[in-house]
Amino acid sequence: MKKGKTYMDKLMENKEFRKRFDKEYQNLCIGEQIARIRHQAHLTQAVLAKRIDTTKSAISRYESADYTGYSLPLLKRVAKACGADLRIMFVAKRTRNVSRSARL
Amino acid sequence: MKKGKTYMDKLMENKEFRKRFDKEYQNLCIGEQIARIRHQAHLTQAVLAKRIDTTKSAISRYESADYTGYSLPLLKRVAKACGADLRIMFVAKRTRNVSRSARL
DNA sequence: TATAAGGTTAACATATTTGCTAACCTTTGT
DNA sequence: ACAAAGGTTAGCAAATATGTTAACCTTATA
Known about the structure:
2 copies of one chain form a homodimer.
Chain A: H1 7-12, H2 15-25, H3 30-40, H4 45-51, H5 56-63, H6 72-81, E1 84-92
Chain A binds a DNA duplex through helix 5.
């Protein structure tokens, strides 16, 4: 298997990138993200529900702040119905030296 | 709710960033990513299994290419045990005009 | 050859998520 | 005041993921 750094690993070594990226995504507010892409697609909870073959009460649950038990299949369906892509990333935590070549 | 562009939205408007980022993550090979961070943490399947309180057969399943039914709680546990962060992102698909200010 | 480490697979019981119904709330417009 | 649209919540049955066991496969090494 590969052990080399990925493109994202390199980007993450850039302090500014890391800071802004983390600020946006580290808190994993999935519910807020779902609400956001739903609104961007101009959909109501009921309409989105119909698109992914469920009910508006389920959508409401997914958008609530204290829900955490999402499955990936579900998130993919939601993303697709909103015209969005879902990205999952595992990012190594420990910060190594910031290499010059990794700057944006 | 907010409708403005996020930092990531802006980055995604940059062709080069988008191309490389997508190449790395669009195929959603969760299993490969798990294997990768596990190896980066120098863990065997058995050791990782013990850390997240399950068995090596389960880890093997999560790293297999044709498994898709992950839950977020599980992915978070795996990431944590490997010293990694998990990031979930919904990214709007349609490409608008690339604004000059969005260049990296 | 034998043994151990690392990994894979199948089958099954348990645990968790999902979808559903029905009720409720708030806001907007008539 | 009334109705409709958009959203929230609780309880329950059905669907799905998880953990476990046991067997198996490779590779390396004594």
